[in-house]
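Researcher: I've been going back and forth with a colleague about how DUF397 domain-containing protein might be arranged in three dimensions. Neither of us has a model we trust, so I'd like an independent prediction. The organism is Streptomyces griseoruber, in case that matters for your notes. Sequence below.
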Amino acid sequence: MPDLSWQKSSFSGGESEDCLYLAAAPDGTVRLRESDSPDEIITTTPAHLGHLVRALKSRTAP
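Model: Here is an independent structure prediction for DUF397 domain-containing protein. You can compare it with whatever you and your colleague have in mind.
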């Protein structure tokens, strides 16, 4: 796997151990990983990630 430039999500907590990182891969996909399991990487497309984010934002808090 090529070296990726990981960026911490703006919604991740400051110095806590529960952070989400994203990286754009050269093949056009998006990679996601958590700080507590950095070797476990999820690959998705920008369209699918956008759909997930929009769906989550449309939900109201209980």
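Researcher: What would you highlight for our discussion?
Model: I'd start with this: The CA atoms of residues 31 and 43 lie 5 Å apart. After that, consider the following. The two ends are 40 Å apart (CA to CA).
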